[in-house]
Amino acid sequence: MNNKLAINGGPPVRMKPLPQEWCGAHYMDEKEVEAVTRVLCAKSPFRYYGLDLQNEVFKLEKEFASYIGTKYALAVSSGTAALQVALGALGIGPGDEVILPGYFWVATVGAVVRSGAIPILADSDDTFSINPDQVEKKITGRTKAIITVHMGGVIGKVRELVAVARKHNLPVLEDCAQATGAFQKGTKAGAFGDIAIYSFQLNKHMTSGEGGMIVSNNEQLYRRAFAIHDLGYPRNANGRLEFNDSATQLWGIGCRMNELTGAVARVQLSKLDIICERMREAKNKIKKAISDIKGIRPRNVVDPKGDAGSFLLLTFEKRDISLRFVEALRAEGIIADKGGMYPVHMDDWGLHIYYNVPSLVNKRGLSMKSVWELKENSQSDVSYSKGACPYLDSLLERTIIICIASTLNDSDIDDIIKAVRKIAEMIL
Ligand SMILES: Cc1ncc(COP(=O)(O)O)c(C=O)c1O
Known about the structure:
Elements: H1 23-26, H2 30-41, H3 56-68, E1 72-76, H4 79-89, E2 97-101, H5 106-114, E3 118-122, H6 132-138, E4 143-149, H7 158-167, E5 172-175, E6 183-184, E7 187-188, E8 195-199, E9 212-216, H8 219-229, H9 259-289, E10 296-298, E11 311-316, H10 319-331, E12 344-345, H11 358-361, H12 390-396, E13 399-403, H13 410-427
Parallel strand pairs: 2-3, 2-4, 4-5, 5-8
Antiparallel strand pairs: 1-9, 6-7, 8-9, 10-11, 11-13, 12-13
The chain binds pyridoxal-5'-phosphate.
Pyridoxal-5'-phosphate binds at residues 78-80, 104-105, 107-108, 149, 175, 177-178, 199, 201, 212.
């Protein structure tokens, strides 16, 4: 066999691109069509009243809460909206600090900034998630909440994090946008902390195009979230607003989920476990098949059985090796079809990484005055440039990320393994 690397002119492991990774979308079929049609035929696309309301969003909330194992669920129009509402429910505002990791999505930190609070980065550990010990070091008298982000389908040391939060009487918000369906030792992502959010945007494990969810076991948080997601007030069983409770005389941001979205999301929820199972099986098979290779370390996953499986992170000993490895993988044909995600070096992982977000590094505001210039926030002196999370930085500069599509077949999986082994043999 000609083992010359494709990057050096040898024959590539595969000629055909890998499938695109839009997980939930691949599983759309006549069930979603029927669900949307039902809503349209009833001429009732709004969730709180209509000609012949089908209560799709209401049913989705019940089913989602039961799936996650929380008392309450509130559907919203996106994960970004869910973050904004959840922070509002927690009462976050100027003068507050919110601790979060440096590996996130721009929407996570954006919601903190738009709330008027100061984001405080805490370094990660080898799970790539926020490090509970580092969080504890960042707690000040101004800390109001801690956010953990379960990136790429994986939950970090969340129980230890919640223990730190409890010790300091602080709430934990779980950003599960990339981890719907993931679990750790029997508990679903979103059921560890005080409030959690999800996204149903196209890249996510289940999708309705756009959409989001908030879950909690705390009635007061749920009631506040409900009011904020809508018009600032609760509604009665007939969908009419109620103004009497002073605790829920708030300001709404109008990010309700509509019935068409709710109908699609309900069907997708019923397919979620299958989707995650396929990604998880593929990922764990690849991990096992390359586990003997010295010089490649996969991300530490606390409970691989609960890994949703959507991304495989491989860390190398040196940066130049990781850069060469990702180029070599692409040359071997480990690339996704049209517009799908191909392996990338984590430095290139865009707005997932704190130092790649210009509005954070440069402390931009929505209005002329940024949150960092507010008098209430003047005690929080903080930098977001590379170097703010040294351990995470050192991981990212040596790590590559491979997307695991739920539609990979056995031969696709074998090709990924073959390519990794071939390159490792030649360059490690
Ligand atoms: C970690 C994380 N948080 C929040 C969001 C925001 O979700 P949405 O795109 O639905 O607004 C995303 C979506 O990409 C995400 O990955």
